[in-house]
C-alpha cells in the first residue's frame, strides 16, 4: 500500500546517475541528511566486521546534492508540492496482512522501526491521505501471503535510512522492507535486479512501477504528480 496526501509529489523514479553537483536544494533538509549519514557510518563501523574502507568511502562520496537531484529528477519541486518537513517526501509503502480475518499493516517508520498495527488505526493516523493498493502480479493468494509473514519476522528492527543493502535485515526503510520480504519469501527481486547492495535507495515509486506489480486500487495518478 502506498499512502499520499492529494497533490503531493513523490519524485523519485529514475536510475542513479553519478554526475550530480551544484543542485538547488532549498526544499531539502541538508542537516538531517548529513547527521543521519554520519550516525549510520559510526554505528555500522562498530557493529559490522565486513564494513570495509571502500564502502565507507562510497558513503562519504554520496553528497547531499547527489541525493537531492536524484529525487528531484526532471520535476520542479518546492515546499508546497513536497508537503513535508523531512529530507524530501520520497513516498511511503507498507505491507498489508490479513490475520484471522482482520487487516494489519506492517511498515518501517522513521523513529519507530518496523512496526505492525491494525489497518483502521493506520488509516486514522493518516487523515486526508489517499491510499494505492497493489499486489505481486500473477501469483495465487497463498504465495502472496508469504510476504507479510516474512515482513513480520523483522518487527522491532530499527529504521535505517542509510542501510542500502536491500538484503541486510539489520535495519530498514519502508520500501527496503517490502523488497526484502518479497525477495526472501518468493525468491525473486521485485524490480528484476537481484543485486541487493545498491548505491542509491530503492524508492516506493520504483516499487509501484515495477513490472511484476499489479495495482488493484488507484485513487488517481501517483506516478506523475
SSE inventory with pairings:
Blueprint: E1 2-4, H1 30-47, H2 53-61, H3 64-72, H4 79-82, E2 95-99, E3 102-109, E4 113-118, H5 119-124, E5 130-136, H6 141-144, H7 146-151, H8 174-186, H9 204-208, E6 213-217
Quick gist of this model?
This protein is of the alpha+beta class and 225 residues long.
Question: Mind explaining what this structure looks like?
Answer:
With 225 residues, the chain is an alpha+beta fold. The chain contains 9 helices and 6 strands, in the order βααααβββαβααααβ. The protein starts with a strand and ends in an 8-residue tail after the last strand. The model is unreliable at 14-28 and 74-87 (pLDDT under 50).
Which features characterize this protein?
alpha+beta, 33% helix, 6 strands, 225 residues, 15% strand, 3-stranded antiparallel sheet, 9 helices
Query: What is the residue-mean pLDDT, rounded to a whole number?
Result: 80
- How many DSSP E strands? 6
Main sheet: which strands, in order across? 1-5-6
Rounded Rg: 17 Å
Instruction: Tell me the β content.
Output: 15-25%
* Assembly of the depicted chains: single chain
Order of helices and strands: EHHHHEEEHEHHHHE
Class per helix and strand makeup: alpha+beta
* Largest sheet descriptor: 3 strands, antiparallel
Q: Indicate the overall shape.
A: globular
Kindly state the percentage of residues in helix: 25-40%
Poorly predicted segments: 14-28, 74-87
Instruction: Provide a count of the helices.
Output: 9
Amino acid at each position: 500500500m502506498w499512502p499520499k496526501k492529494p497533490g503531493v509529489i513523490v519524485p523519485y523514479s529514475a536510475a542513479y546517475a553519478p554526475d550530480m553537483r551544484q543542485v538547488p536544494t532549498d526544499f531539502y533538509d541538508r542537516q538531517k541528511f548529513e547527521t543521519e549519514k554520519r550516525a549510520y557510518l559510526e554505528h555500522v563501523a562498530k557493529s559490522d566486521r565486513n564494513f570495509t574502507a571502500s564502502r565507507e568511502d562510497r558513503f562519504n562520496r554520496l553528497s547531499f546534492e547527489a541525493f537531492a537531484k536524484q529525487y528531484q529528477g526532471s520535476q520542479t519541486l518546492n515546499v508546497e508540492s513536497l508537503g513535508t518537513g523531512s529530507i524530501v517526501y520520497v513516498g511511503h509503502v507498507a505491507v498489508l496482512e490479513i490475520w484471522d480475518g482482520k487487516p494489519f499493516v506492517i511498515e518501517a517508520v522513521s523513529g519507530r522501526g518496523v512496526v505492525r498495527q491494525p489497518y483502521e488505526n493506520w488509516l486514522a493516523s493518516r487523515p486526508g491521505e489517499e491510499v494505492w493498493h497493489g499486489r505481486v502480479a500473477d501469483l495465487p493468494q497463498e504465495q502472496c501471503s508469504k510476504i507479510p509473514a516474512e515482513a513480520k519476522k523483522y518487527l522491532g528492527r530499527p529504521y535505517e535510512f542509510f542501510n542500502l543493502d536491500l538484503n541486510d535485515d539489520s535495519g530498514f526503510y519502508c520500501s527496503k522492507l517490502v523488497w526484502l520480504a518479497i525477495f526472501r519469501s518468493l525468491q525473486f527481486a521485485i524490480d528484476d535486479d537481484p543485486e541487493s547492495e545498491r548505491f542509491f535507495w530503492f524508492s516506493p515509486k520504483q516499487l509501484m512501477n515495477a513490472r511484476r506489480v499489479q495495482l488493484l486500487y488507484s485513487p488517481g495518478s501517483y506516478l506523475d504528480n
